[in-house]
Amino acid sequence: MAELTLKDRIRQDMNAARRQRERDRTRLLSTLLSDIRNREIEKRHELDDAEVAEVLARGVKLRNEAAEQMASRPELAARERAEVEIIQAYMPAQLSEEEIRQKIVNAIEAGAANIGALMGRVMPELKGRAEGREVNRIAREELARRSGD
Fold first, then answer.
1. Which of 68, 88, 108 is the last residue of a domain?
2. What is the residue range of 121's domain?
3. pLDDT tens, 87-143?
4. What would the DSSP string read from start to end of the chain?
5. 11 shares its domain with 57
6. What is the pTM of this model?
């Protein structure tokens, strides 16, 4: 039997959550499937696992931003963070800071001399496996270190 796609896994888990009457989990997974479907309509083809992971990463980013904005409402911020944890269970393993730093150093050595060129070179490779804000922070550190040498 063929291995399940990421989208199929989410759908199966949503149905299981529905059967177990886990309202919040069912709502979240249903929302994710809707986001995936909307992206498929936008792209005009069925998404592969890498593209589904991009949709999930966008969901994580939105929920993290929402949690930050809800600092005055800790119960809502906690719910957003709980949703982030559920979504991250479906995403590919995130790269460590050292792995990100090594890819950035390799890109700098290959000729990326400014932040735009550097981000343009490493983000396609890191997409879905590292948060853009973190990559940008490390890239700026490495560029500053190189210019200080």
1. 88
2. 97-148
3. 999 988 888 999 999 999 999 888 888 889 889 999 988 877 888 888 999 999 988
4. -PPPPHHHHHHHHHHHHHHTT-HHHHHHHHHHHHHHHHHHHHHTS---HHHHHHHHHHHHHHHHHHHHHTTT-HHHHHHHHHHHHHHHTTSPPPPPHHHHHHHHHHHHHTT--SHHHHHHHHHHHHTTTS-HHHHHHHHHHHHHHHHH-
5. yes
6. 0.76
